[in-house]
Amino acid sequence: MRWEYESPEKNVFLVDGKSAWFYVPADHTVTRVPAKQSTDWRTPLALLAGEVKLSRICARVDLANAEKPEKDGDVVLSCRLKGSTTKAGQTAGKDATDSNGDMLFLEIAHDTSHLLRAVVRGSGGVDIEFKFKDWQFDPPLPDSFFRFDVPPGVAIVNGELPAGDPRVNP
């Protein structure tokens, strides 16, 4: 998987099967994380990379009737992320109804069943939204497109960026 961003700052996120790479050219560093050891499943990236099932990250999945889809007829699902906390500081469980924990909303197209939008709503009031369109399955791309070649003068940082790091701002 490869995602390239132009704003808020230019960066590249690439998963090559062994490692996840996060490169911000302005920082002259690239962070390399073993793909199977990544623990930050609060974004839809893990789902898109095929690395995780909803049952692994969601305490529960329901229809999100209160969330309006961008297109009439589409469906929005809600997922309270496992390990998120409620107002009382309790870990969200199967019957948690307090909406103050971290939530993932997935908008699914009624006509194609494609993922159109994913929103991570954090308990701190921060939303991260991903929109998808023009899905192409197995397009012809060279293998080199999914290989990260470290540019000269760029430092490699091994490990994982802490959750909430402002540099991880897709």
Helix tally equals 2
Q: Briefly, what CATH class? A: Mainly Beta
Distance between the termini: 14 Å
Largest sheet: 5 strands, mixed
Supply database-style keywords.
170 residues, mainly beta, outer membrane lipoprotein receptor (LolB), chain A, five-stranded antiparallel sheet, 10 strands, 5% helix, disordered C terminus
Give a summary of the structure in a few sentences.
The chain has 170 residues and is mainly β. It has helices at residues 45-48, 54-57; strands spanning 2-5, 11-15, 19-24, 29-34, 58-63, 75-81, 103-108, 115-121, 127-131, 155-158.
How are the secondary structure elements laid out?
Blueprint: E1 2-5, E2 11-15, E3 19-24, E4 29-34, H1 45-48, H2 54-57, E5 58-63, E6 75-81, E7 103-108, E8 115-121, E9 127-131, E10 155-158
Parallel strand pairs: 4-10
Antiparallel strand pairs: 1-2, 2-3, 3-4, 5-6, 6-7, 7-8, 8-9
